[in-house]
Amino acid sequence: MPVLDRVSDVQLERLVVDRIVPALLADGFCHVDGFLGASLGDAVLGQVKQMHRGGALQDGRLAGSAPGVHRRTIRGDKIAWVSGSERGCEAVNVLLHRLDKLVSACARRIGNKAIRERSKDVKFQNKVTG
């Protein structure tokens, strides 16, 4: 695997202070373009595509069912729950580590009650079109 884009703790802290926390407080969400960088983003995408080709992505499921409602009209995505420790998910593991650092830095600034953690696993979705 190529050397992945490195982001220092100082750079993450600056992103949190300058952009993420103010956006979370004002809007309740934040979108950051380029957060992964080109090489890490490409590596994560490649691993997700490999999971898709290998059949690891499964149809998204509904919590319940209603007569006459077809699942595909509501959910047409494919998903896989991964922890990052699976073989072939090395870049995903780097992503998860970076997200953990980001969540921790945000929690220190807006209170532990507002942000506790990211979800246990990352859900990759591939929207099926057509």
From TrEMBL:
InterPro entries: HIF_prolyl_hydroxylases (IPR051559). Coiled coil: none annotated. GO terms for molecular function: ferrous iron binding; L-ascorbic acid binding; peptidyl-proline 4-dioxygenase activity. The keyword Manganese does not apply. One of its GO terms (cellular component) is nucleus. The keyword Transmembrane helix does not apply. GO terms for biological process: cellular response to hypoxia. Keywords: Vitamin C. PANTHER family: EGL NINE HOMOLOG-RELATED (PTHR12907), PROLYL HYDROXYLASE EGLN3 (PTHR12907:SF28). This is Uncharacterized protein. It comes from Solea senegalensis. The lineage of its organism: Eukaryota, Metazoa, Chordata, Craniata, Vertebrata.
